[in-house]
Probable glycine dehydrogenase (decarboxylating) subunit 2
Amino acid sequence: MNLIFELSKPGRASSLLPECDVPAAFPDERFCRAKAPNLPEVAEVDLDRHYNHLADEAFGVCDGFYPLGSCTMKYNPRINEEIATLPGFADIHPLQPASTVQGALETMALTCDLLAEITGMDAVTLQPAAGAHGEYTGLLLIRAYHKAAGDTARTTIIVPDSAHGTNPATASMAGFDTVNVPSNEQGGVDLDALRAAVGPDTAGLMLTNPNTLGLFDPNILEICAIVHEAGGLCYYDGANLNPIMGIVRPGDMGFDCVHLNLHKTFSTPHGGGGPGSGPVGCKEHLAAFLPTPVVEERDGAYVLVEPEHSIGRMKSFYGNFGVTVRALAYILALGKEGIPQAARTAVLNANYLMRKLEDLYTMPYPGPCMHEFVMDLGPLKEETGASALDVAKRFLDFGMHPPTMYFPLIVHEALMVEPTETESRETLDAAAEAFRAIWHEAHENAEALHSAPLTTRIGRPDEVQAARKPVVRWTPEEPERPAAQEGAE
């Protein structure tokens, strides 16, 4: 497929703007380019076809099954998109006086209240723009809390070996050292190892529950108590909130703060890396440190206020407001009955699909699972030579997105599958049949799997070459210059 620049022909255009009816105004010459930008010149029909072709090449939740473990790729209801584009939401500006955007501020306040209720927290900020950004915000709250208490020796964050990869990275960015604690045979936190890890240098624990193996840790109350007794705080990574929302709350488990992924649990677009949204909730003892500003209702009006010991701004203005609107629409549509029902259905779907596959694929932690389950392709690779990568690539030929590969790291040939609650039984049955067909193919003709996918526009790329010598920029060819005429200067 050609790039838009390769379709460009001099003189072609698709501009339908009317002739300017006011005097033209240009910036000062020192702000102008020395050379005009190399923008493509294409007809409108070519432009339209180009972007439609690009859309056809992409695969999203609206195209088919998307069981990307740990990402909760659920369907985003179209009504949420319609609501977010209402003029009262889409046509306002963050610098308007608060008195002129009371509806937007009420939207933010209501969203914070509902997220606090769902998580068992006392206060919420909507500023963080993604999950990892929320992690960073939460750890800054923990750091500020210990600093305010004069407890500057607390420099260590404890992270389980089944944690998301962002957890240790975020802790490092926030200025902490990290200590890993191993999992026990059941896939939960090893309590003895945790007791040995905590001490006077413990600032906190980062944990998601259910964890990355898709398992709810039955020792969660004791885990939080061990950290609290050592003087640390407990941070909840909300990436896996979907199977427990409306049923059990992180705040009731003992967590002091939590981040949420609105683009996972609350069905807003992932957006190809952004805009996402990672609100952070906290208990009362951390509320004074929240990013500024927060929305409060005073004397019948909504105002923006600065918490007493705020860590400052985490993002310009008030976060990704349009994403907040979509999440609020989703929460209000489901309500108190629909939210736990969505969670239960997510758990049901994951267990249903796992049971359909466990006679062929190895389940290192057979469950019951929560929202996702992990398959160990190690035995299959030993028997046939077909790896987790081969199975995932072959899955593409069935018109479905592959599950997460090689994660969590404690399962070496892992495929992590998360169906979400929005998939039908028929879709789950089709996915099971695809996985089963691939298993049999691995035993009959494993060599063919090494070349998968076989039906997609792009086959299997040379991933080593792509990593070592990536081509990330297109450079136009210089036009050929006419040969100099005889006698010309």
The first helix runs from residue 44 to 57. Residues 156 and 177 are 5 Å apart (CA to CA).
